[in-house]
Each structure stands twice: as C-alpha cells, then as structure tokens.
Amino acid sequence: MCPFFTAIFSAYILKEKIGKHRFISIIIGFCGVLIILRPGLMTVDFASIGVLIASACFAYANVLTRKIGDDEPKIAFTFYTTGFIFVANAIPFMFNPVLPEGLNLAALAANGIIESICTALLALAYLKAHAVTVTKMMYTSIIWAILWGYLFFDDKLGDIWTIVGAITIISSGLYMIYRESKAQKADLLT
Predict the structure, then answer these.
(1) Roughly how many angstroms between the first and final C-alpha of the chain, as a whole number?
(2) DSSP secondary-structure letter at 12?
(3) Distance CA 161, CA 169 (A)
C-alpha cells in the first residue's frame, strides 16, 4: 500500500509525473495487496486498518523528506525519526517499567543503531530519486520479512493466496526496477 500512497502524495505534493509504467506497476502491486488481504472474504480487523494508516503515514513522511530535503541537514531526518520512535516507545514504558537485561539490552541497542543508519540511508535515497521509485524498491522487504520470519521465528508462509499475492507484489516491484533502469539507460544515451 505504501507505493500507492506515495504515488498519490508525490503527484500532489511534489508534482512528480506518474507515467503509465509506474501506474501499471502500482496497480499490480495494489492487486497483490488485495489478494493477500481478500477484503470481503476475511474479516478486516484493527490490525489491517492500522497497517493501512501506517502505510499512509510512512508514505507521507517519505514524500515530505524529498520535498524539504534540500533545505534541511541530512542528519535531521534520522534525528527526528529516531527521536519520535524513542518517545513513542518511552510513553508505555513509563507505565510498566521493565528494564531489559543481557542479550535483550544488546539487541535493543543494536536495533537502535541499525534503525538510525537505515533511516539516514532511506532519507538519502528519497533525496536522490523519485519517491515512487524508492518506495517500489521496498517491495523487496517482503522477501526479507519471509526469510527472517522463517529463520528466527519459525513463521510459515500461510495459504496459497498469500503466496500468490506476495509474488504479485514482488513482480510489480521488479517490473518497476526494470523500467527505471531502462529509462535511465535511454537518458544516458540522449
């Protein structure tokens, strides 16, 4: 859903042109999401609505990063994002203070460092490329989520429709990557 929201926001906020190939890729990815969620066949619960809201907020934040990117220092994007995550997690902690120990503390510290680095790299990506293009690359996170879920949490893929939807989403992202690289080669030749 994030690429769909990014396309909408980037068209209105950034005035970026969404060509037919980007539009086709976004629609195919959206169809993959619908295949996985199967609205009408499965109960739409609070978690599903939360994912939609989170996707819209993430897309909006990334488009704003591109819009104000030239006027702000690059470290500001990492600082504000990480700061917000810290405050959002600190509030529930105040009501139930349980301090992590040993490996859990080390894992949390490593997670904070990795998140800060990833946020900085993501901000740089949005400053260098079209917002829709960067967001389409995030479809590869489906592959990583499946891999890490299987390796570390013994997650299973689910039913055949989840697999078909994931393949559809990944295919739309690969199509966008192919089209963007083809367009860049054409621009270099002219």
Answers:
(1) 34
(2) I
(3) 12
Q: How far is CA 164 from CA 28, 29, 53, 57, 75, in A?
A: 12, 12, 24, 27, 39
Distance in angstroms (rounded) separating the CA atoms of residues 119 and 124: 9
By CB atoms closer than 10 A (0-12, 13-18, 19+), residue 159 is: exposed
**Beta strands in the chain, from DSSP E residues, in sequence order:** none
21-80: per-residue pLDDT in tens?
878 888 888 888 888 877 666 666 777 788 788 888 888 887 887 777 667 776 777 777
CA distance 48 to 146: 18
Instruction: Quote the CA–CA distance of 111 and 82 in Å, as a whole number.
Output: 11
The DSSP element (H or E) to which 54 belongs, if any, is: helix 46-68
Can you tell me the mean pLDDT for 135-154?
A: 78
